[in-house]
Amino acid sequence: MKRSSFKVAVVLGLIAVYIEFISIKGWTIDLIGGFFDLIPFSLLSVLFFVFAYKDFTLYKSNNKITSYLPTLTCLGFIMVVAGQMYLTAQRMKSKPLFTAYNYQITDEGFNLEFLKNGYVKGLLARRFSVDYFCGKYEIVGDTVHLKMRNNIGLGSVGVLYNDSLQMVDDSIYFLVDFHHRR
Fold it and tell me: Structure pTM?
């Protein structure tokens, strides 16, 4: 019983960690996509309480030390996922340096918000869904190097002109709004 509980905790934990660490998140208009992302973490949290309750009642009834391996495994994965959620939220709180807008890709738009702390947030709106991207960037002179996975084939190098960002690898360009000029 403990061995299968441990295996379930490890599998759900690895899935929850993978989902939290990927840099592309999608939400459909009915939010089903977002709920699917939360299912492994929610199940892991429920299993933690179930395993903890079973371990505690077993300890109380037998007065013997039992193996808390499944409980501690769930707790460890919960702490890793919650820690990553917290770090991502803190990174994305930084003030924006500039925002790049593009309406070529979709009519609803694709925005890249370059934060002062070296992180970039992307938002790709489509008719019935929204995709969120996050990553890092570095500016060397007038060249922007993106370190961000995306699902539209956006290049990783762009050149900043006056009020535009032209991607070198493709024909995509963005209009740029510099926030420090306000």
Answer: 0.74
